[in-house]
Amino acid sequence: MPINAMARLFGRSPFVPLQLHLDKISDCVEASVALLERICAGDTTNIDKEARAVSKLEHKADLVKNDIRNNLPRGLFMAIDRSQLLEILSLQDSIADQGEDIAVLMSIRPVKILAELSEPLKEYIEGNLNAFHKVKEVIRELDALIESGFGGSEANRVDGMIEAVAIAEHECDIMQRKLMKGVLDHEDELSVGDFFIWQRLLHEIAGISNYSEKLANRVRMLLTLK
Asked: How many angstroms from the chain centroid is the CA of residue 210?
């Protein structure tokens, strides 16, 4: 994005560039989830190609992130401190990194799908994606928070949305533990390599909801500091 264009976005609101960045991250996360869903259905063709596509989407998100950092206004009044905005930006970036890590892992070795764990894995993937969608809604409300002075009914509403992210992340934790137990119950059907991929994949997927919760909590800090 041209420098002047990014500067104009900051002129509208310090949060508009963050929302633009989150849109790029969403493309990356959705693509990695689509790849996982295809693997769950037993289709492992063109995994390398699709993993490279996810990496390209993560790179596009990185370009927007760098553009924001390079054009962040200095010495001007903003609704939040530069450091706070950069912390939010960094947490958003971590979600994109998780999406890429998932795709890269699957390109190295697609997870061996076990019949009894197929549906629980799909639910786990969807649960993490749900947490991400919920924090996207929180970030979309930041402009309204500015207008309300980070207080009143709008702040209470956003606080409730943040709590919903925390609940979604907790539900993912429960699903992760059950899935790991299921993997251990079927360890005789898995090679050492297969077991490692299962363990690593569950951890990488969990990063989506974990970082989503951290991002939501960072917004909650804005509410408490105002």
From this structure: 8
Phi and psi at residue 190, in whole multiples of 5°? -115, 140
- What gap in Å lies between CA 164 and CA 161, rounded to an integer? 5
Alpha carbon of 180 to those of 159, 173, 201, 226: distances in Å? 32, 11, 11, 41
DSSP string, the chain: --HHHHHHHHHH-TTHHHHHHHHHHHHHHHHHHHHHHHHHTT--TTHHHHHHHHHHHHHHHHHHHHHHHHH--SSS--SS-HHHHHHHHHHHHHHHHHHHHHHHHHHH------HHHHHHHHHHHHHHHHHHHHHHHHHHTHHHHHHTTT-HHHHHHHHHHHHHHHHHHHHHHHHHHHHHHHHHHTGGGS-HHHHHHHHHHHHHHHHHHHHHHHHHHHHHHHHHH-
> Which two structure tokens, joined as six digits, stand for 188?
């005789």
Give tens-digit pLDDT for 91-123.
999 999 999 999 999 999 999 999 999 999 999
Q: Looking at the domain that runs over 3-225, which CATH code has it been given?
A: 1.20.58.220
Tell me the pLDDT tens digit for each residue of 12-69.
Answer: 567 889 999 999 999 999 999 999 999 999 999 999 999 999 999 999 999 999 999 8
> Are the C-beta atoms of 176 and 224 separated by less than 8 Å?
no
| Residue-range domain boundaries for the chain | 3-225
Do 142 and 219 meet the contact criterion of CB atoms below 8 Å apart? yes
